[in-house]
C-alpha cells in the first residue's frame, strides 16, 4: 500500500505530518549524499591536505545558506547553525577522503 504524502499545509493529522517529515528526511539524506560526493571530488582534486579547510569559503557557504533561509521566511540564525555543523562534517569527511586516496 502506497501512502500519499501531503504538503504541510494540507495535513490534518499528526500521522500525515510525520509521514511528510519522514519523506523529507529521506530526501535530505539523498541530497547530503550528493553533497558528500562533491567532497570526494574535492579531496581527489586538491593537491594538498592543507587546502581542505578554507575559512573564507566556509563563511561564504554559511552566509549563502543564511540568506536563502531568510529569503524563504525561515530563521537565518538556526539555518546558519545547521550549516556550520554541515560544513564542519563535510571538512572532516573530505580530510578522511584525502587521507584514503
TrEMBL record:
Residue ranges annotated for the Chorismate mutase domain, each copy included: 8-98
Superkingdom in the source lineage: Bacteria
Enzyme Commission code: 5.4.99.5
Pfam families in alphabetical order: CM_2
Keywords, alphabetical: Isomerase
Keyword Isomerase (UniProt): yes
Database matches in PANTHER family: CHORISMATE MUTASE (PTHR38041)
Name of protein: chorismate mutase
Organism: Sphingomonas corticis
